[in-house]
């Protein structure tokens, strides 16, 4: 009798283990592209509400909900420059039910800067679609230099005596300023702030000479005259500020853009990735989407999944090379 009980318990545990494996396998089975999605989908935005990533992410999620007839639920999981929300998705099943709206910060700059990231941005995700790109903009107090050439001349005449602000040590704005110094042969003192808000306040007050930030949050400051834009860090001028020259007009080849894109866990079926990419690209070409993006200074990202993957890889390598050459350390 005792042996039978032991065997029965052993059989039960074995059966339960097998059932758990089968359930896990069943959950991991992705829906076919022809039927996708057959239930609600979660989009994780790894930043607080209100920023450009949140606004455009929610806009696109609503458009896809209408197109698919299934709800795209948007969740903000902010923290650690986008790392917390991104890590959550990296460790999820690749069944097409969850994605992250990743950015330059979470999927290029932070991985380039921090060797202890909880995920590998190039290995642990399936790139689905580039959503938008945003140029960084070089801004100064209205009492500062009036042109980019004037600024560069002033910096070269005062090496190490003038300061620039960033939204934080190791942020994309910090690295953009470092890239600018390398490209122009100048040297400034770095003043890191805790976010864009405090940086812009001190720029308006004239406590630092210049700073870089993405175009969306600073457009109102430029349009109101509180700050002067000396150049956009894209190769072409931006339609939201057409009178602002590109930095590349004075510093050939200079480019430092921010971006946002949709990524799922590694292992997403190719046919599902292609379907979502196609649906997003179709929406991005709609007139109301084009206008929404223009209002925020963003350019729609019309790339295939493969091209987006290559874009992310090159951007990561670019920032990694800068981090190494400038000896920038994560704090």
Features:
331 residues; D-Maltodextrin-Binding Protein, domain 2; 2 domains; 11 helices; 10 strands
The overall strand count is: 10
Separation of termini?
Answer: 64 Å
How do the SSEs run, as a string of H and E?
HEHEHEHEHEHEHEHEEHHEH
Radius of gyration: 23 Å
- What is the highest CATH level, the class of the largest domain? Alpha Beta
Largest sheet entry: 10 strands, mixed
Q: Quote the average pLDDT.
A: 89
CATH homology superfamily of the largest domain? Bordetella uptake gene, domain 1
Task: Explain what this protein looks like in three dimensions.
With 331 residues, the chain is an alpha/beta fold. It has 2 domains: 37-134 and 257-325, Bordetella uptake gene, domain 1 (D-Maltodextrin-Binding Protein, domain 2, 3-Layer(aba) Sandwich); 135-249, Periplasmic binding protein-like II (D-Maltodextrin-Binding Protein, domain 2, 3-Layer(aba) Sandwich), CATH 3.40.190. It contains 11 helices and 10 strands. It has helices spanning 2-28, 52-68, 83-90, 104-113, 148-157, 172-184, 196-205, 215-224, 270-284, 287-295, 305-325, and strands at residues 41-45, 72-76, 98-103, 125-140, 163-166, 189-192, 210-214, 228-232, 257-265, 299-300. Strands 1, 2, 3, 4, 5, 6, 7, 8, 9 and 10 form a 10-stranded mixed sheet that branches. Helix 2 (52-68) packs across helix 9 (270-284). The protein is globular and about 65 Å long. The N and C termini lie far apart (64 Å).
């Amino acid at each position: 009798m005792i042996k039978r009980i032991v065997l029965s318990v052993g059989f039960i545990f074995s059966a339960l283990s097998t059932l758990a494996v089968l359930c896990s396998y069943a959950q991991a089975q992705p829906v076919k592209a022809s039927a996708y999605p057959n239930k609600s989908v979660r989009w994780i935005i790894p930043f607080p509400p209100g920023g450009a990533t949140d606004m455009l992410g929610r806009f696109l999620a609503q458009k896809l909900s209408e197109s698919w007839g299934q709800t795209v639920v948007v969740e903000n999981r902010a923290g650690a420059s986008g790392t917390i929300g991104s890590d959550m998705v990296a460790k999820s099943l690749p069944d097409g039910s969850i994605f992250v709206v990743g950015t330059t910060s979470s999927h290029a700059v932070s991985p380039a800067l921090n060797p202890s990231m909880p995920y590998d941005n190039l290995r642990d995700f399936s790139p689905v679609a580039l959503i938008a790109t945003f140029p960084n903009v070089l801004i100064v107090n209205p009492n500062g230099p009036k042109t980019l050439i004037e600024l560069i001349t002033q910096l070269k005449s005062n090496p190490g005596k003038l300061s620039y602000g960033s939204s934080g040590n190791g942020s994309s704005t910090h690295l953009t300023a470092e890239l600018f110094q390398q490209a122009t042969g100048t040297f400034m003192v770095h003043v890191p702030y805790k976010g864009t808000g405090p940086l812009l306040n001190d720029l308006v007050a004239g406590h630092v000479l210049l700073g870089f930030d993405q175009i969306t949050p600073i457009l109102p400051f430029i349009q109101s005259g509180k700050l002067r834009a000396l150049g956009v860090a894209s190769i072409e001028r931006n339609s939201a500020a057409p009178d602002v020259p590109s930095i590349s007009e004075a510093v050939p080849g200079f480019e430092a853009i921010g971006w946002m894109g949709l990524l799922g866990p590694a292992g997403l079926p190719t046919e599902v990735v292609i379907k979502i990419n196609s649906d997003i690209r179709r929406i991005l070409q709609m007139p109301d989407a084009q206008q929404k993006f223009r209002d925020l200074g963003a350019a729609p990202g019309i790339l295939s999944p493969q091209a987006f993957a290559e874009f992310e890889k090159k951007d990561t390598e670019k920032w990694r090379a800068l981090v190494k050459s400038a000896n920038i350390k994560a704090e």
